[in-house]
């Protein structure tokens, strides 16, 4: 009998709340070592402590503003220093602030949305992908949005960034093949912190015939696709996109 298999090291950005939190819990439940990363270090550390207590796995929380290149590098350096490897990266961090009109979007808002949703994913994907390719392989999942393929004026900077993220998935999948797989999950409307800012009429539309399943998604409903794409049964899947939108994009 050979030595016991070493559990994977999984990094989840935007990991302290919403969909990211549910992903961290799911990875820990199956025995993975988890790095919870988001802008607020304290929230990351609190979740990491719960994962250690509830699942008996190694878990750390790391403060990281993914819109800052130096923070992305510091996150990867910390993970490699603590664990010596990265096996799975989930680029989940995102933001979609409201604005009065397209002409009133400030340069600061535009730059921040592109940085958090796209620039950080590129830098982390390149750093982790290069490491994975040189050390036995791995998996990257980018969390996009149906806004990337069905943009609207209410979230155009966000949609533009997510469209870029979809392109990034394909580019990274080619760059780090054959040992690193890179895929996208593309959620529709989900009950997360972003949804807290939605006006009531938007939620009413999603709960009517606009969404065939007549509701918005719950945070834990994206987890299955992420576990699949990062697991062994997706071994021939790379450069792919899985929509998780209650049928919204199809219906429109």
From TrEMBL:
CDD domains: SDR_c (cd05233). Residues 8-197 form the Ketoreductase domain. Keywords: Oxidoreductase. One of its GO terms (molecular function) is oxidoreductase activity. It comes from the Bacteria. The keyword Oxidoreductase applies. It holds the Pfam family adh_short_C2. The keyword Oxidoreductase applies. NCBIfam families: PRK07231.1 (NF005559). Belongs to the short-chain dehydrogenases/reductases (SDR) family. This is NAD(P)-dependent dehydrogenase (Short-subunit alcohol dehydrogenase family). It comes from Pseudonocardia endophytica. The lineage of its organism: Bacteria, Bacillati, Actinomycetota, Actinomycetes, Pseudonocardiales.
């Amino acid at each position: 009998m050979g030595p016991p298999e070493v559990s994977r090291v999984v990094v989840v950005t935007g990991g302290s709340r919403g969909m990211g939190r549910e992903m961290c819990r799911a990875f820990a439940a199956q025995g993975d070592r988890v790095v919870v990363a988001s802008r607020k270090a304290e929230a990351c550390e609190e979740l990491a402590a719960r994962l250690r207590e509830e699942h008996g796995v190694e878990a750390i929380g790391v403060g990281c503003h993914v819109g800052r290149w130096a923070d992305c590098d510091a996150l990867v350096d910390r993970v490699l220093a603590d664990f010596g490897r990265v096996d799975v990266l989930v680029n989940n961090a995102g933001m979609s602030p409201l604005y009065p009109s397209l002409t009133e979007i400030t340069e600061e808002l535009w730059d921040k949305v592109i940085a958090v949703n796209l620039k950080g994913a590129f830098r982390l994907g390149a750093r982790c992908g290069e490491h994975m390719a040189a050390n036995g392989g791995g998996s990257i999942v980018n969390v996009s949005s149906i806004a990337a393929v069905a943009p609207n004026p209410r979230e155009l900077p966000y949609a533009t960034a997510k469209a870029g993220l979809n392109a990034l998935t394909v580019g990274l999948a080619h760059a780090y093949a054959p040992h690193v797989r890179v895929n996208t999950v593309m959620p529709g409307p989900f009950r997360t912190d972003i949804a807290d800012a939605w006006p009531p009429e938007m939620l009413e539309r999603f709960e009517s015939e606009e969404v065939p399943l007549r509701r918005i998604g719950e945070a834990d409903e994206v987890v299955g696709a992420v576990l699949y794409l990062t697991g062994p049964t997706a071994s021939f899947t790379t450069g792919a996109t899985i929509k998780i939108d209650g049928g919204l994009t199809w219906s429109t």
